[in-house]
Design goal:
The complex is a heterodimer of chains A (409) and B (370). With 409 residues, chain A is of the alpha/beta class. Helices cover 40% and strands 16% of the residues of chain A. In chain A, α7 packs antiparallel against α12. Chain A is globular. Chain B is an all-alpha fold and 370 residues long. Chain B has two domains: 85 residues, no CATH class; 265 residues, ABC transporter involved in vitamin B12 uptake, BtuC. The radius of gyration of chain B is 23 Å and the shape is globular. The chains are: A alpha/beta (409), B mainly alpha (370). The interface between A and B is large, with 52 and 49 residues.
Chain lengths: 409, 370
């Protein structure tokens, strides 16, 4: 009897599910809903790796909100999906967005890309954007796009802020060894490009500076980032930069500074003054609304969307946060000068005359090697004496390990 | 107050002398479920001020509202069911297999390896090899704790738990080895163009528009397990050992052999769940391929009291709750914690209802009715 009842219940449940699914098949709900709102027929699907409690995703949410407001889109037009992990759930959500009538779907995490691409290949009528991704060009799919800000530009400028402080400390005799530490997330091009930009910014002020990089193998880990910063300070680093998303490193630096060590922090994404009121010099940041505004405008007008979109200072997509209270004198002027030169195109961050690899000036470099076979996938990277970062594909591709920087792990 | 010679407590709990008839037991469970909906409805009002009916409707829409979401719910329920079915024999004989996570992962590694290295083979052959290697990998992962338990009476809870960590590290190693694009620290979708090693589509057009094969495979395993547990001699041995090891020994059952055999079967089916997860769903592998489902499946197995057919209901219920919770969070801009609280309340009531199925409560002064 019990078994029989269990079977019946199981069947009922399965049938219920089938019935629910059947109903939706018969009535295409999304288009009906769209029909009621004559003013807003478009739907945009957004698939996010976190929610607003997580800094990286928060920056994207803000960017999308701002861009949506600028383009006259409301929450009615946007299907939000928060906390979607980097696995088949991303693909599922992309398809669900399409089912709900979205004709543009955005995913915001690098490792969402593969699933987004899969969805794009199966839905040629829907535009897909994998933020910070790097396979759109190679995929050959006309409806699949990547976008990235030229963050290395703002890292270079934040390096100038750090360099000015370093010079001041050396002039005051507080520091003899111009030793920089950097807390990086993963050992790949996005991080390498970032720390090299930061380092070259510092070296434009203090040419003898050298830097160590400690990886945490995580994008967000307050404890590990704090520990990495402590380890670097124990080795004698007096400025700690970072390419990881938490406040772990700035907090550790503030604690060390409060204990009398002359150390300063350069953050990422958000203003670190709340976490490190006196130790924070500045942070390099992204303003994603610049891209999203471009995207929504092109999408609404029915214009083609760039396969790879990458912009920086020129359009205000990157920048640095407010300078901390203890920056060196003249920092604001130096920052303004560098920003103007980058905007004017007279300053190239990866100018080959400013760095060497193995003691030699570099004359040739890959722009993109997607499969690790040491064959360049796209154009030559170094033309006219500088590395053309993010010009062929939007994702950072500068992977050279230049002299003066040591990766500790 | 009336004086009594024997002080009687206000509430007295006693184990039921005999099993409740099924309709009563299920009645209790359904009432518990309805109560949990009421309580979580109150919590929703208290926390967010939203209309609970609308919230539950959103939940249902999120889980089964579109063709795709319904299939996703079915697919994930099937994976969870497969793991729970794998755990059932081990738990039934009181062998605490906490290692499903690891067994899923090694099965997943085996499947992914076949997809990457044997992608030239014909579909059917490749899928067969993938399924077999996953079974073997999961079985081996179960074998070690089983052997050690049989030989040296080691604690299987700790042993299987530790095997999980080994499997996670092993997965991380292979993810680093197979990463694509190079340097990305993720494997991405394997064979995105050829679909080699993907469970093919059965019903509709396009690849994996549905997951009917997942359903067929897992239900076949479920039925087989039901027959094994209820109709076979080995299944009977398992239930005897679960009730009393000494009785089993006295009856001449070779307990150690049964331990090793059962945990191999348990591990192998969890390994097969890894195959279903990789070939039938993610087409990729990461350290989160198991994603805690090895532990969730324990709840499924216990709620169903190791009856593999009843597990179908609870797998669907749990996945339904999970998907619904996600939809609530996204639709109402709530933190995902709120929806997890709702899931927690419902599970609490369901697990709690088992108490009332197995025990009776007597109030002071009332005659105990027989």
């Amino acid at each position: 009897m019990k078994k029989f009842l269990a079977l019946i219940l199981a069947l009922v449940m399965v049938l219920c599910l089938a019935a629910c699914g059947g109903n939706t098949n018969e009535t295409p709900a999304p288009s009906n809903e769209g029909g009621e709102e004559t003013s807003a027929p478009v739907k945009i699907g957004v698939v996010l790796v976190g929610d607003e409690n997580e800094g990286y995703t928060y920056a994207h949410i803000e960017g999308i909100r701002k861009a949506a407001a600028a383009c006259g889109l409301t929450d009615e037009n946007i299907v939000w999906n928060y906390n979607i992990p980097e696995n088949e759930e991303c693909y599922d959500k992309c398809i669900e967005c399409v089912d709900q009538g979205c004709t543009l779907v955005i995913t915001n995490s690098y490792s969402h890309q593969s699933y987004t691409q899969q969805a794009a290949s199966e839905n040629p009528d829907v535009e897909f954007v994998a933020m910070t991704g790097d396979t759109a060009m190679k995929s050959g799919l006309p409806n699949f796009h990547n976008a990235f800000n030229l963050t290395f530009e703002s890292r270079y400028v934040s390096g100038i802020v750090a360099g000015m402080k370093l010079k001041e400390m050396m002039d005051a005799g507080l520091v003899t060894d111009p030793y920089i530490g950097y807390v990086g997330a993963f050992p790949y091009a996005e991080v390498v490009s970032g720390y090299t930009g930061f380092f070259l910014g510092i070296r434009s002020i203090v040419p003898e500076a050298h830097m160590d990089v400690q990886y945490t193998n995580s994008w967000f880990d307050i404890q590990e980032e704090g520990k990495a910063a402590e380890a670097l300070m124990a080795r004698g680093c007096c400025i700690i930069g970072q390419h990881a998303d938490s406040t772990g490193a700035p907090k550790a630096v503030q604690t060390a500074k409060d204990n009398g060590t002359p150390v300063y922090s350069v953050g990422y994404n958000i203003d670190m003054l709340a976490a490190a009121p006196t130790a924070a010099l500045t942070s390099s940041t992204n303003d994603w609304s610049v891209f999203y505004t471009y995207l929504f405008k092109a999408f609404l007008a029915g214009e083609p969307i760039a396969t790879d979109w990458a912009e920086g200072y020129e359009s205000g997509a990157v920048g640095i946060t407010a300078l901390g209270p203890e920056v060196a004198e003249g920092t604001a002027e130096a920052v303004a000068e560098a920003e103007a030169a980058i905007k004017a195109g007279t300053l190239h961050v990866f100018d080959t005359s400013t760095f060497t690899v193995g003691g030699e000036t570099v004359t040739s470099a890959f722009t993109f090697d997607s499969d690790g076979d040491w064959v360049n996938d796209t154009n030559e990277g170094i033309v006219d004496g500088y590395y053309h970062e993010s010009e062929y594909i939007s994702a950072p591709s500068f992977g050279l390990r230049i002299d003066g920087i040591t990766e500790l792990n | 107050m009336e004086h009594k010679k024997v002080h009687e407590p206000l509430l007295r709990m006693a184990k039921r002398g005999e099993m409740l008839p099924p309709w009563k037991a299920w009645g209790i469970r359904v009432i518990a479920f309805l109560l949990s909906l009421i309580v979580s409805g109150l919590v929703i009002i208290a926390v967010s001020g939203l209309n609970p009916a609308a919230v539950f409707a959103t939940m249902a829409r999120g889980a089964v509202g579109t063709n795709k979401s319904m299939w996703v719910t079915i697919r994930d329920a099937m994976t969870l069911l497969c793991i729970a079915v794998g755990l059932a024999p081990a738990f039934k004989m009181r062998f605490w297999n906490i290692g499903a996570e690891g067994q899923i992962l090694v099965g997943a590694i085996a499947s992914a390896a076949c997809m990457i290295y044997l992608n030239k083979l014909p579909t059917f052959l490749l899928l067969l090899i993938m399924a077999l290697t996953s079974l073997i990998a999961g079985g081996i992962w179960g074998l070690f704790p089983g052997l050690f338990k049989a030989r040296w009476n080691t604690n299987e809870t700790l042993f299987t738990l530790m095997m999980n960590y080994l499997a996670i590290r092993l997965t991380a190693f292979f993810v680093a080895k197979w990463e694509n694009p190079f340097g990305s620290n993720s494997v991405g979708i394997i064979n995105p163009n050829t679909h080699a090693g993907w469970l093919p589509n059965m019903l509709s057009k396009g690849w994996n528009g549905d997951y009917a094969w997942n359903v067929v495979i897992v239900l076949a395993v479920t039925v087989a397990m039901y027959l094994y547990m209820n109709k076979s001699k080995q299944g009977f041995e398992i239930s005897v050992i679960g009730d009393s090891v000494n009785t089993a020994r006295y009856a001449g059952i070779r307990v150690n052999r049964a331990y090793v055999r059962t945990i191999i079967i348990s591990g192998a089916i969890c390994g097969l769940a890894g195959f279903v997860a990789v070939s039938g769903a993610s087409h990729s592998i990461s350290t989160s391929t198991a994603g805690g489902r090895g532990f969730t499946a324990i709840i499924v197995a216990w709620l169903a009291q190791f009856n593999s057919v009843v597990m179908v209901i609870f797998s669907f219920l749990l996945v339904f709750l999970q998907k619904g919770a996600q939809a609530i969070a996204s639709s109402y801009n709530l933190s995902k914690d709120v929806s997890e609280i709702i899931t927690g309340i419902i599970l609490f009531f369901l697990l709690g209802s088992e108490f009332f199925v197995n025990y009776t409560v007597h109030f002071r002064g009332k005659k105990v009715a027989k």
